[in-house]
Amino acid sequence: MHDHLSSSLTEKIEILTLVQDEETGNIAWAPSKKRWASVEIDTQRNIFSAVGVGTRGATIVIRTDHRLTLHQAIRWRGEFLHLTSIVLSKGRDRQEIKAALVTPVECLKDADKTPAGCSFPGVLTEKYVGHEQLDPLAVVTGDYVLVTPKPITLAPGSWVICDGRYYRVLVPHELDEYKNEYEIRRKEDC
Question: Which CATH code fits 5-102?
């Protein structure tokens, strides 16, 4: 039996697009359109970062929108959803979107310079360290990963302020087509 798409789209979502202020250069997420959707919280973690730890995920189904890309984001019930995949159904009447439920923080680029660079949204996550056996006497440092929209580039060695704290940019990971990731360390741990 064919399911009726319209009866399952009961949640209102907001598609977010990056905008840049022409005067300040600041970048922010802004609402661009609203859609009806079906949203389900996933039982498995969403690995939205190649070098950071995963987080809760969600699956969103909407009517096909060919303009929607992984450069955008979704706001649903006050939650921010970082898009990780968009798949068109066989019938081409719907898209299934996978997303990570994350909390974006406001960041400031080149915080060590005067004047500082632009502000932008980013997502902080802990760095995935694997199953590495540490020396019992080793000092553990707080390494994190900052996931940014693709237009944001940070130089290794530069400073960034995220959510009011200073971090040094250690290693850039910029090969992903839709986002950049930066291994960073808190100022206190440098």
Answer: 2.40.10.270
Rounded to whole angstroms, the Cα distance separating 102 from 113 reads 29
Question: Up-side HSE of residue 33: CA atoms within 13 Å toward CB?
Answer: 8
Sequence length of the chain is 190
pLDDT number for residue 1: 36
Report the amino acid identity of residue 70: L
Q: Which residues contact 174 (CB under 8 A, 6 or more apart)?
A: 153, 180, 181
Residues 132, 134, 137: CA angle, nearest 5 degrees: 175
Q: Report domain extents, the chain.
A: 5-102, 105-189
Stated as kind and residue range, the H or E segment containing 7 is helix 5-8
User: How far is CA 45 from its chain centroid?
Assistant: 14
pTM score > 0.85 for this model? Answer: yes
* Residue (of 26, 121, 38, 25) closest to 80 by Cα position: 121
pLDDT of 190 strictly over 70: no
Torsion angle defined by CA atoms of residues 76, 54, 178 and 158, in that order, rounded to the nearest 10 degrees: 110
Angle at 28 between CA 60 and CA 144, to 5 degrees: 80
C-alpha torsion sign, points 78, 83, 84, 87: positive
Contact 28, 18 (CB under 8 A): yes
Q: At 188, give phi and psi (nearest 5°).
A: -65, -25
What type of residue sits at position 109? K
